[in-house]
Amino acid sequence: MTEDSKDRRDEPANATPGQAQPTEQIPASAAGAPHGADAGYVPPQAPYAPYDARPGLGTYPPPSQTQPFPGQEYGAFDAQAGAPFDPQAPHGNPAFGAHGHPQPAPFGAQQAPAKRPIRTGLVLGAVALALVSGGVGGAVGALATHSDNGRSPITNALEQPKPNVNNVSNAPAGSTQAVAQKVLPSVVMIKVASSRAEGEGSGVILSTDGLILTNNHVAAGGGPNAKMDVVFSDGSTAPATIVGADPVSDLAVIKVTGKTGLTPIELGTSGNLQIGQPVVAIGSPLGLAGTVTTGIVSSLNRPVSTSGEGPRNPAAPQPVIDAIQTDAAINPGNSGGALVDGNGKLIGINTAIASLGAGEPGVGQQSGSIGLGFAIPIDQARRVADELIKTGHATYAQIGVKIQAQDTVNGARVLDATPDGPAAKAGIPAGVIVTKLNDRTIDTGDALVAAVRSHQPGDKVKVTYTDEQGNNPKTVEVTLTGAPADGGR
Asked: 3-class SS at 441?
């Protein structure tokens, strides 16, 4: 699972072969590898394509070959099928005489019905189009019926008067159109460039004087001393600097200079989201500013391990987000953009996508949307953003255990409890399997980390664990402590 850090055209200077970079597939870590109490975790499931890996431009499929017009070959028409054309023969149909006058049929003979003009191609064309689109097929059918009637009235759609429609005022409340009109002025494109890398991401406006919330891997994507510019919905631009960054939650706040009177986004809540609820994603995929896509909330509390920004340090806590999953199309460049509800209120920060790996049978390299996008819930993002603005740093909750990121057990195996830490104080011993945190089922180590980090330092939670055989369940209360994230101004 990786995040979408814009479009990287240059690899990091310190990249080495085999080392996972922001623009590469990040393989799962070896099964059974222990990790620190709140250290980085590797996704237990499918690999996730980097958000910032801009896929190469493909060739537009060529138009399909034209089909031969049904019916007889043009220029070979004869009243009697198969008869060769004779220039000396009398003109007209034999049934009508040399000059087209009807000839009486012999007495008692059955007169053959007159043949209608051959219009097979047009009629078949009308049927084929009707199967695809009723409106188009109907139009062609009408042409077939009246094409030989010179007295039929002729109308032309191009001659109709232009309707007086105001699409802005006609947007129904709660429609995607209304949501887009409300949110687009509050979403920006962020361009980052340095000698190390360059690319684009997205962000949401928090204040009228230019505070903007985005992903850490967007703001820090260019490395130290990178140049950062923000493009607003009206096309204007302004330089920006980092106010504070948190690599653990993968969030950052930046501020533009020389801008006032901006439109802050309206914040919602992620605490009462429902699966199936409609959502709208807005951002700058592949540098296409102001792109709007729609979908639903596909799942909640999805633990997503991302690579963060910079070299991976096994001893440092890695980003594991308690994500909102959506099928709204999210692509490289959407990182840091808005996921909003049907009222245009911010419920998440788009951060990562799942992708099919190049090594899977029958699958090529895929770095675009496959309907599996992930966003940081706004309730967590709001707390982190507030800390970054006030102090330049953020904290995250921890439970004080060392766990197995990937395991064969259904739960999070505790390898060790930090002495005098929250878990140790609550009596949670090494070797047990954590299966629940409050009412939330814990089935992996990443699930426990994501569940803990969704809370604030100081929160009290109920932790249920069993022995190694899954027996003797026990529930204890644990008071989470806070730890500073290794980020800042």
From this structure: strand
